[in-house]
Amino acid sequence: ERQIRGFEIQPSFGIYYVEKDDDISVSEMCDRAMLALQSTKSNYLVRYGVYDDAIIEKINEEQTIVSEMNAALQGNQFKMMLQPQYDHSNGKVVGAEALVRWNHPRKGMISPGVFIPIFEKNGFITKLDEYIWESACKRLRKWLDYGGNVVPISVNISRVDVYNVNLC
Description:
With 168 residues, the protein is of the alpha/beta class.
């Protein structure tokens, strides 16, 4: 790190080790070094990334998720789960938090830690959030219609949604 005229410079590097038996072009080697560099962008404490097979696996996993996200939304594969919130003084449920899970037909439950960052990056999180908000409203309506115990449901708002002028 170095200060130049009030600006802090923090270099980052992508590293691709050239093997003796590599039959790839210099251009592809540079592409691999760039992929390694991109792997550091989400962590400001990491200054360099080294290309390996895990990077390609992660990219392929992300591409698979992106290619399936619209069909998953249309096919109701995303499920709203409610985490109860308790009043510890009397043990009663006083609210709930809406959480999303992806029930994939072949892979089973996919952790939100896998798909949420991808959806935030590509903007799909807005559609998913709206789906969960609507699911929460439908659940409240169902409780009201059947005379059940109605408690507030908290929903998450992605940082991407905050910039949406039509949020309200």
